[in-house]
Prior knowledge:
Elements: H1 3-21, H2 29-32, H3 49-73, H4 78-81, H5 92-97
Helix pairs in contact: 1-3
Amino acid sequence: MSITAILVVITITWFMVLFIMLPIRLETQGDRGEVVPGTHAGAPANFNLKRKLKLVTLVALPLAGLICVTIISGVISLSDIDMLERFGPKGPEASATE
Length: 98
């Protein structure tokens, strides 16, 4: 697995965790009953982005590490998820049967 592939896995995992965690514990202005004029009632009342990004990073990095270790170890390979057999033969035994 190349460095570029590792960075791609980390980036995709980070953004997936971000979009999952953004609405968690979100308190809107409408929930509080303190809607600021000119804003929507669904706007966050107290949105602490810095804290949320730190938490996302703390969750995403170990998760991305687990994904990278799984890929590197070979527990799950491309042939395991190739249901339509578009990536060629399954392995050395496939060429022996032909």
